[in-house]
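Support request, priority: normal
Reporter: lab tech (M.K.)
Component: structure prediction queue

Hi team, I submitted a job for Ligase-associated DNA damage response exonuclease from Algoriphagus jejuensis yesterday, and the status page still shows it as pending. I've pasted the exact input below so you can check whether something in the sequence is tripping the parser. The sequence length should be 341 residues. Please let me know if I need to resubmit or if it's stuck on your end.
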Amino acid sequence: MNSSDLLVFDSKGIYCPRAKVYLDPWKPVDRAIITHGHADHARFGHRNYLTHHSNIPIIRHRLGAINTQGIGWNEPIQINGVTFSLHPAGHIIGSSQVRVEYKGEVWVFTGDYKSEDDGVATPYESIRCNTMITECTFGLPAFKWKPQATVFGEINAWWQSNQQDGKTSVLFGYTLGKAQRILKYLDTSIGEIYTHGAVENMTEVLRPQLEMPPTKLITPNTSAKEIRGNIVVAPPSAHGSPWMRKFVPFETGTCSGWMAFRGARSRRATDKGFVLSDHCDWQGLLQSIKASDASRVICTHGYTDIFSRYLRELGYDASIENTDYEGEKEEIATPEPIPSA
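Reply from support: The job had stalled in the queue. We restarted it manually and it finished. Here are the results:
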């Protein structure tokens, strides 16, 4: 990158020198614009936080008493002559892209994003720009998502089959974003929905903004008999823990983009894998970049080498920058091998 660039990457994060503002910094700074509430993008210790209104309850729940300013979609705010605005990223509820403009030059930092409208997050908005900073968590041609309705048809059929076999269904999904997406589309005509405390707490924070079915928090007093045949939504960290003993007999399922890889399910010791991600697949990334009209693309976390090389073959000025972003914890905590041709 050039020192004259509108945005630069330094030891603290993505920095706009002219405005003296950081985007999703990973070390404490004076002023931070936050794209969404996942822990790798919204960190504790900044003096001032700027984010979308709908993300404020999330980051306050996670970070405590912080100094936060909220703005709406497409609402311009000027800082030292630079115009910033937030635009829907479609990743999870409250997730934003950051548009940065100065003297006609436009950069867009996508944060994490998803081009499919999931009916939970505000749908992704394509923004025209000169330079686009994109994640590429699933930047391989092997990743091609099924329509969401198809995946939830599979999930509900799995639940019903388990119920007929006298088993409880335990479904794992990240506490923020994935869990609420799962809850919204479970078929409550099959049975009742129970939740792990971490999922329940975050869901209660989001209920004022989302229409979701009723859930029952699992407590020490919850009996195995009342849970039997119903479904439990829990974070991946609960898998294999003593907490699950009361669900016996049960079947486990994991919702993750990594379930598209053969062998991922067995490595995670889960009975069933559902390919459901809050990130773009290969085509989603390419289509989003094309729609932006950007000539320059900076690739951050994910399959950066392969994806940036392919972009260069297409004629883009594509490069890689290292960040401290990890994507969803359960999606990339275990690196997956690149599949053979």
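The chain has two domains: 8-141+278-332, 148-274. Residues 148-274 form a domain with the Rossmann fold fold (CATH 3.40.50.10890). Let us know if anything else looks off. Ticket resolved.
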